[in-house]
Amino acid sequence: MERLKVVIGCDHGGFKLKQEINKMLEEKGYEFKDFGTFSEESVDYPAVALEVARAVRDGLYDRGILICGTGIGIGIAANKIQGIRAALCHDTFSAKASREHNNANILTMGERVIGPGLAKDIVNVWLETDFAGGRHARRVDMIKGMEISDEGIGN
Ligand code: RB5
């Protein structure tokens, strides 16, 4: 597989976990870019989500990772951007399925919810799993259709 280009971002609630994930990505030799935030000073998570989501949507990066306190707000925000399928995963089963079934292009996690050990396992599984295609591709296409119009999906 070609080397994945990854972009990562967080708010103040996800800063410490982001640093841990960065360390791991570096050790594993992933090509990644950190869009911040770069301290525990309070920032608004929708702004970070927007930057990372746009970069993934525009194809500058293959995958994005977003971390806030819960992983919820930053994921809701990222999913407002057309073409983004952000998945909140706090276990490795969901992380794998979000890639195989949903072709998730952004992973979100909450620093206040899980520890760094599990978070690293989740990131590894998520980055290493491919989209399964087939019937799942039809369903992802239906989601893409809904981004254009909710008047009928898949056509
Ligand atoms: C920040 O306090 C917190 O609300 C944020 O990190 C996130 O959990 C929102 O969903």
Task: Describe this protein with a few key phrases.
45% helix; alpha/beta; 5-stranded parallel beta sheet; 6 helices; single chain; Ribose 5-phosphate Isomerase B, Chain: A
Brief overview:
Helices cover 45% and strands 15% of the residues.
Describe the structure.
It is built from 6 helices and 5 strands, in the order E-H-E-H-E-H-E-H-E-H-H. It is 45% helix and 15% strand. It is an alpha/beta fold. The protein has a 5-stranded parallel sheet, sandwiched between helices. Strand 4, helix 4 (92-100) and strand 5 form a beta-alpha-beta unit. The protein binds D-ribose. The site of D-ribose has 8 residues, from helix 3.
Ligand identities = D-ribose
Give helix % range.
40-55%
**What number of domains?**
1
Give me the secondary-structure category: alpha/beta
Instruction: Note the quaternary state here.
Output: single chain
CATH superfamily: Sugar-phosphate isomerase, RpiB/LacA/LacB
Query: How many β strands by DSSP?
Result: 5
Which CATH top level class fits? Alpha Beta
Q: Give the termini distance in whole angstroms.
A: 32 Å
Rg measurement, Å:
15 Å
In the CATH scheme, what's the topology name? Ribose 5-phosphate Isomerase B, Chain: A
Label the overall shape.
globular
Instruction: Name the helix and strand elements from N-terminus to C-terminus, one letter apiece.
Output: EHEHEHEHEHH
How many helix segments? 6
Strand order, biggest sheet? Answer: 2-1-3-5-4
| Second rung of CATH, namely the architecture | 3-Layer(aba) Sandwich
Largest sheet composition: 5 strands, parallel
State mean pLDDT (0 to 100 scale).
96
How much of the polypeptide forms β-strand, as a percent range?
Answer: 15-25%
Low-confidence stretches: none
